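Summary for the steering committee. The consortium agreed at its last meeting that each partner would contribute one worked example illustrating the joint modelling workflow. Our contribution is presented below. We chose a case with several input lines so that the handling of multiple components could be demonstrated. No manual editing was applied between input and output; the record is shown as generated.
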Amino acid sequence: MTLLAVDDITVSYGRLTALRGVTLKIAEGEVLFVTGPNGAGKSTLLNAIAGVVPAGSGSITMDGANVTGASPEDIARRGFSLVPEGRNVFGALSIEENLKVGTGMRADRHKIAGDLDSVYAEFPMLADRRHTAAGMLSGGQQQMLVIGRALMTAPRIMAIDEPSLGLAPKIIDQVYEILVRLRAQRKLTLLIVEQSSTRAMMTGGRMILIRGGRIVLEGAAADMIKDERLKQAYFGFGDH
Amino acid sequence: MTAVLQIIFDALSLGSLYALGALGIALIFGVMRLVNFAHGDFIAFCVFAMLWPSIDATAVVFAGMLPFYLLIPLLLIIGATLSILSEIVVFRRFRNTNPATMMIASFALGFVIRHLMLMLYSSRPKSITLWPSLGLPVDFLGAHIPMLQVVTIVITLAALAVLVLFLKRTRYGLEMRAAAENFTMARMLGVRANGVILLAFAISGMLAAAIGLILATISGTADINMGANVMLIAFIATVIGGLGSVPGAVAGGFIIGAASVIFQATLPHDARVFRDAFVYGAVIVVLLVRPQGLFAPKSAKQRV
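What follows is the complete predicted structure of the assembly.
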């Protein structure tokens, strides 16, 4: 069943067009990797779905309802949780407060305490420092915190923008282990923007390649890694 | 000793007034990066709301006749309503414009409110007597402290305590602090932008009403420009404290209040008329040393 459908959307920042007619579908429980070179429009795609940047044309549908032009808070309330690039922890708030910000919109209040315990069980390092200001955490710990914070909203789709950015390889492995486990446990649908295509291959799932605001390649992550066109898209030779 | 005690109480009560004003500005700045220069006119409006509209020199006291337990809630509601209306009618349309545009809009709104009051009440200051018994001094360790100073300090501390409890202990307080730090991220976590902003305006309006009540009781007059001075100093207090920081705004208010009183008490007699020049000089020194303010919030730091 299609959970999220993006149909032919175009996004422009002034005269600069960042996305040109992108169409994609994500089924419930699926993992979709979005990859491509810098400036291809990957983050713009996530921000457009989240309602942070308006789509100039085209439509976005979640769970059958048209959410084109809806506000970020309405889209979050429909179960789309975005972990943006650069992590964006609330540095002055404590770890526990960061985790609780997104629970205000939940209707199932009685489940919040249990979810908090399970996030702490998943990330014991957060539990030990729950009253510390989040700004004191290292980059890797902040990445764990924002994943935990997104989980606390009880999302149906979790979108993560460059989870490996600025992290040591060992920490990246840890982040992906957690994502794979969470997906299995919670039947979470994942939309991950990632530059490193090897991570995508290891995790499995589907992959799309964006370049110059267009989808240029689409397929199973494992097959695409072997495709010469992936390299071409990154390095630009051969197609013009 | 008694002179020192007197100075301490003067500093605390003046600082309280500035701290309440600075808080009203900082809360709104926190959630929408707007410096609301109409805040001073909100203060004056709340005072004039106690009078029946007339251009006579002697004020016709209207709501001011009510007993305090009705008058105070009524004025808080008036302050909150005016503030909420200004958000809905004016500031909402400037939500995503740059801060300078919003600031100019707030100047314009201030003009509109001031001239509305001019039309209804004329520019003549009016005398207004609220609770004359508060002017009587109380003896405290040998010093004569006006009752009103004690009341001002107590009200401010109580308002601060309620606000801190609200911000730290309630869901809406948490959402407000998150929104002040990163508005877009808070919205992506389901925090309603309009709700948080309206709440900030409502609290700010109630703080303006509280200042109006205190000012009217101290001065015994209602003057259309009575909020302007407090607004200016409160704005400077928020800058010293670090724009957007709530504890910074409170600290800034108390620091400026203390500085004025201490300069007043210690400057040589001939220099006292230039007290404000010394106060603003000290402000410049503080900003030269810490341009981001004393308690700059983390979110205000340049991100690399």
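The two ends of chain A are 38 Å apart (CA to CA). The mean pLDDT of chain A is 88.
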